[in-house]
Write a structure and sequence with these properties.
The complex is a heterodimer of chains A (381) and B (337).
Chain A lengths: L23 E10 L2 E11 L4 E5 L6 H9 L6 E6 L2 E2 L10 E4 L11 H11 L4 H14 L15 H13 L5 E5 L7 H18 L2 E6 L2 H7 L2 E6 L2 E6 L1 H6 L4 H6 L4 E10 L4 E5 L3 E5 L10 E6 L5 E3 L10 E11 L3 E8 L4 E7 L14 E5 L6 E3 L2
Helix pairs in contact in A: 2-3, 2-4, 3-4
Chain B lengths: L19 H10 L2 H12 L4 H28 L14 E4 L2 E5 L4 H8 L1 H34 L2 H12 L6 H12 L4 H8 L13 H25 L4 H8 L4 H29 L3 H6 L7 H11 L3 H32 L1
Antiparallel strand pairs in B: 1-2
Helix pairs in contact in B: 3-14, 4-14, 5-9, 5-11, 9-11, 10-11, 13-14
The chains are: A alpha+beta (381), B mainly alpha (337).
Chain lengths: 381, 337
């Protein structure tokens, strides 16, 4: 920043700054289709420059939320504010928002250049300005030579880039993306993820993206909102959502988790001890706002569990014993399904750090699973 | 060889027990004419696929090209008081061919007598304005139907098609009862006090327009609906998202994409409307001269078959040429796409 700007540097995490004014504010927003509440009293703040993901299974209301922001649906309750302005009376064509559609919705009777120019023409920009901007956008998405093509003459990846260029042409402050990568194959999807992030960083636009692909959300987002049945279950940066899920729903929806039910035995200021009928004594090195004897759940990620054929020195805590029921070999890692004495199965993921010729552990072996105090997360719901 | 044997290989000796179709084929082969036809088909290399394509071609030749050739032949004859009422084109005397007698007087008359010119132009003008009216009414209707909830679409479509259950003639005739001076429309308007003199609509060009638009509206709506029903409505959302007002989006997105339907609907209304006879005869006045009516008068009142044939040939050419040009234009557009 130049010296002219005396204001303090914007914190990297505006959502943790109580003084920061959010760019988008949702207050108790609901949308009902008949008897179904697709979006149920959602309140949410999204800040300028964020790459915000709405993640959830199909039918969880994430696309409806995006369409409410775009103005294609009117909320049945609550207020949506964008940049301090109440959007309830503003129709879609007057909102300072552009959207990239899942189907891309390119106009089939127009060329690539005409598609990109469409939004600019609505603003009655001078012809020369439109032409410059179209060229600039074609360059941005690396389609400079394809301006005269019709959408049906392009590959899926090229169409996706045209849709992006068209949505960015008006230089919106907010771009909504509805499953932007869903129609691409895996390799192209990964490449495009990084392109989207680069574009977002370069133009400084706020992105709100809908996806059902958790990997996509983890890679790209500044924050993720995990949705379920019209509600937001958790809003947090990717690492926090993964390492500190706030519910069993989030823990199992994002990544994989073994969940043990138990009762609080001892709650200290910096740790908690839990007794579980199926997994013995569990120790987690974080405090929990739950009284002694309350029922809680402990989630342990498969990759945080160590598997061994010998019993550990201290088997009294964070340790279960079982037999290998199944092994899945994925190349980079192996997944062990271990059956505990009570019949409960535990999943363990182990990186294959050496070439796998003879398995140290194989089917029906007696094994001990252990994890450190920093591996588990206590869940209250 | 005693007789023709089946030359189509796939039918011969494949099954011990011939199928019903094969039995029919063998029985037909006993008829020399059929056998000769099969031999001919085999000789010119007609495959099964070729035979399938030959059916629509045969249909068109039999019911479209052949009647046209007959009418064309008639148009070059001369009217005479005989049975049939025209001179033959090919001159045969005692079984000897003496030559072809071509009479172009009919066509000369069409160009010289301004009655025919006026009829043609009148027909095209009335058909054109009626088509525009039908489009103006049909497009919003088709649009509304295509955007209606799925459960409503079939009933709405039925309501468009339902009038076909009643005879066309009766429906046009019913309009006389509505439009005449002491008819339903004038009665209702006078009852409401909107007018104190009956409006003269029947036997005017307005009545002809009403009749044509009413009768041919389904032919406008159906292709438009078929086209709009396939439309991807997220395109309109995309247009709105890019700052396009709904009315503008209709003109820049919906109409261009519905163009094939609009062209089809307009053709289906315009072409029959030009040659329409019943509607101008029942609803039009004596000053509404349309080519269909002129043709009728020439054929049935003046019994001048050759002249009316010439009228029909010219009408056909006037209608077919623009369509051919339009088709070629469209093919070029498709290729460019």
């Amino acid at each position: 920043m130049s010296a002219m700007h005396a204001s303090p540097r914007k914190p990297a995490e505006p959502w943790n700054d109580p003084a920061a004014v959010p760019y988008i504010r949702l207050r108790e927003v609901s949308k009902a289709f008949g008897p179904v509440n697709a979006v149920d009293r959602i309140s949410l703040d999204i800040h300028r420059g964020e790459f915000f993901s709405l993640l959830g299974p199909s039918g969880c209301g994430k696309t409806t939320l995006l369409r409410l922001l775009a103005g294609f649906e009117t909320p049945t309750g609550g207020v949506i504010e964008i940049d301090g302005t109440d959007m309830s009376a503003v129709p879609a064509h007057r909102r300072p928002v552009n959207m990239m559609f899942q189907s891309y919705a390119l106009f089939p009777h127009m060329s690539v250049a005409q598609n990109i120019a469409f939004g600019l023409k609505q603003d009655r920009l001078p012809k020369a300005d439109i032409a410059t901007r179209v060229d600039e956008m074609l360059g941005l998405v690396q389609l400079a030579k394809l301006g005269d093509r019709k959408p049906h003459q392009l590959s899926g990846g090229q169409r996706q880039r045209v849709a992006l260029a068209r949505a960015l042409a008006k230089r919106p402050k907010l771009l909504l993306l509805d499953e932007p990568l869903a129609a691409l194959d895996k390799r192209l999807r990964e490449q495009t993820q990084f392109e989207l992030m680069a574009v977002q960083e370069r133009l400084g636009i706020t992105f709100v993206i809908v996806t059902h692909d958790q990997e996509e959300a983890m890679t790209m987002s500044s924050r993720i909102a995990v949705m379920d049945a019209g509600h937001i279950r958790q809003v947090a940066p990717p690492a926090e959502v993964y390492e500190f899920p706030n519910s069993r729903y989030v823990a199992t929806f994002i990544g994989d988790a073994n969940i043990f039910e138990g009762r609080v035995e001892r709650a200290a200021s910096d740790s908690v001890t839990i007794h579980s009928a199926e997994a013995g004594r569990l120790f987690v090195d974080r405090s929990v706002a739950s009284p002694v004897d309350a029922t809680v759940w402990v989630a342990v990620r498969p990759e945080k569990i160590a598997i061994a054929a010998e019993p550990p020195a201290d088997a009294s805590v964070n340790c279960v014993e079982g037999t290998v029921f199944d092994i899945g070999y994925l190349g980079d890692m192996s997944i062990f399904h271990v059956a505990l004495a009570g019949g409960r199965r535990v999943r363990v993921a182990q990186a294959n750090r050496y070439r796998l010729v003879d398995r140290a552990i194989t089917w029906s072996d007696r094994v001990w699973l252990t994890w450190p105090p920093g591996a588990g997360v206590v869940l209250l719901t | 060889m005693s007789g023709p044997e089946p030359r189509i290989a796939y039918l011969a000796g494949r099954h011990a027990e011939p199928t019903a179709l094969e039995r029919l084929f063998y029985r037909l082969m006993a008829v020399p004419a059929f056998a000769a036809l099969v031999a001919l088909a085999d000789r010119i290399g007609l495959t099964r696929r070729g035979a399938v394509i030959a059916i629509p071609y045969g249909w068109l030749v039999l019911f479209c090209l052949l009647p046209f050739l007959i009418v064309l032949k008639l148009s070059f004859a001369e009217a005479e008081l005989a049975q049939p009422p025209y001179t033959p084109l090919f001159d045969w005397v005692d079984g000897h061919f003496r030559g072809i007698r071509v009479n172009i007087e009919n066509y000369r008359l069409l160009f010289e007598d301004d009655l025919y010119w006026r009829s043609y132009l009148n027909s095209i003008r009335i058909a054109f304005t009626s088509t525009l009216l039908a489009l103006a009414i049909g497009l919003p209707m088709a649009y509304g139907m295509a955007r209606a909830p799925l459960a409503w679409r079939t009933p709405l479509l039925m309501m468009v098609i339902l009038p076909f259950w009643t005879s066309f003639l009766i429906r046009v005739y019913a309009w006389i009862g509505i439009l005449k001076n002491e008819g339903l429309l004038n009665g209702a308007l006078m009852q409401l006090g909107l007018i104190d003199q009956p409006l003269v609509i029947l036997n005017t060009e307005i009545a002809v327009h009403i009749g044509i638009v009413y009768s041919y509206l389904p032919f406008m709506i159906l292709p438009l609906y078929a086209n709009l029903e396939k439309m991807d409505w997220t395109l309109l959302e995309a247009a709105a998202d890019l700052g396009c007002r709904p009315a503008r989006a209709f003109w820049t997105i919906t109409v261009p994409l519905a163009l094939p339907g609009i062209v089809a609907g307009c053709s289906l209304v315009f072409i029959p409307a030009v040659g329409e006879f019943v509607i101008p005869d029942l609803l039009g006045g004596s000053d509404t001269v349309m080519i269909g009516k002129t043709l009728w008068v020439e054929f049935f009142q003046n019994r001048d078959w050759p002249l009316s044939s010439a009228v029909a040939v010219l009408l056909l050419l006037a209608l077919v040429l623009p369509i051919v040009l339009l088709q070629r234009q469209r093919a070029r557009l498709e290729a460019a796409r």
